Records
---
Amino acid sequence: RKKTQRTLKDKTDELDFVEVRPLSSLEDTTDRLAGDRWRTGPPTGRAGREGATDTAGPLGRGVRAMEKARPQWGNPLQFVFACISYAVGLGNVWRFPYLCQMYGGGSFLVPYLVMLIVEGMPLLYLELAVGQRMRQGSIGAWRAISPYLGGVGVASVVVSFFLSMYYNVINAWGFWYLFHSFQDPLPWSVCPLNGNHTGYDEECEKASSTQYFWYRKTLNISPSIQENGSVQWEPALCLTLAWLMVYLCILRGTESTGKVVYFTASLPYCVLIIYLIRGLTLHGATNGLVYMFTPKIEQLANPKAWINAATQIFFSLGLGFGSLIAFASYNEPSNNCQKHAIIKSGGSQFEASPDK
């Protein structure tokens, strides 16, 4: 017992020499460390990244890993041009002027602009924000938000798949007409001679040279739906060329696509300006402009005009296909997607100008 008491006394004597620091000194040390961190910023390098992800938990580590592995656009301009190039199509060049003509010319612009502000810009901003924040494509982005929303991403990919299947056929027709446009005279401007070379083809004379070239030379349609036509090898080669160009454009991801969009975003505007100048020089162009921009107030009470305006917004901006989410996923996390949504909306409306 005496030995135990002597040992406890020795331990007590040792504790007497331990410096007990007041709480005020600990607060000073904490303030000094906080001040050093404020001046020098957060830790950088591998240690800083690991520390940040550890505090954020598994979700933070996953987001940080995606930000590190996900490629990015070379600059914000490439992203804007990619979105504009994506929206250029028949929905802007053909469908919008058709709706303007149907619903009173300039009066259709009123429901269209209202739907653009109320419907189009918020949805466009939503898609860009989701893609930029989640750093994934349409399926992964919606699934990351909630597993129950994974079907939304799958549906958008399925729609885009079927859309690209038939839309590239239209591109193939464009190549077909481009190659034949170097002939003189143009093959769709005159009717061919009959087999005896004694006159023009009877079928072409009953229809027109344009329809004859389309149905007989381009499509070579069968007499009825029960009969299968043969493969048209020349248009098939044009379709192969169209898919080959798509492959070359996306071969290296954003590295190759970011270079191509400078051309694909600029060329449509140049062509549309040429069409505009050509249209203004035609006879009766002034009457057409007066008709187009003279509003018919009674059309504003037509519910079909508002429904078609709301539908046209999806064609003009390319909403609902998941492509905008994929484009935005290659942005910097700090990118101002709200500003880009406004720029994208304005650019699409220029393409959808009713002057065309």
---
Amino acid sequence: MEDPEEGAEPAHNSHIIVKDVSDFTLLLGASRRIVNGQAFERGQWPFLVSLHYLKPNDYTIHTGIQHLCGGSLIDPYWVFTAAHCYSDDLSEGFSEVTQWRAVLGEYNQLIKDDGGQTVEI
């Protein structure tokens, strides 16, 4: 499928860009653009969960953002997410559940206290 703006194939990767384009997105191998994305209204997706890792690591140090994985709230006490988010194979210490928190209702991760609800895990 061709990108009509640039006449080239869109980048295929699994990285999520959570901050404006920076040198760090290149370090991660992430694309400099979002393909087929669309804006959404505050509260439109109330079941989406941002999972934050609390220990400093290369990603949070370079971006200032603690979001490392996403999930879906499937019950008042349960979040469905990918198993690799908590794998020490990805980074040592990720399996320590107490080092994570869930943030629900956050609209913009670059704005402190934008109305999200934080829940310790």
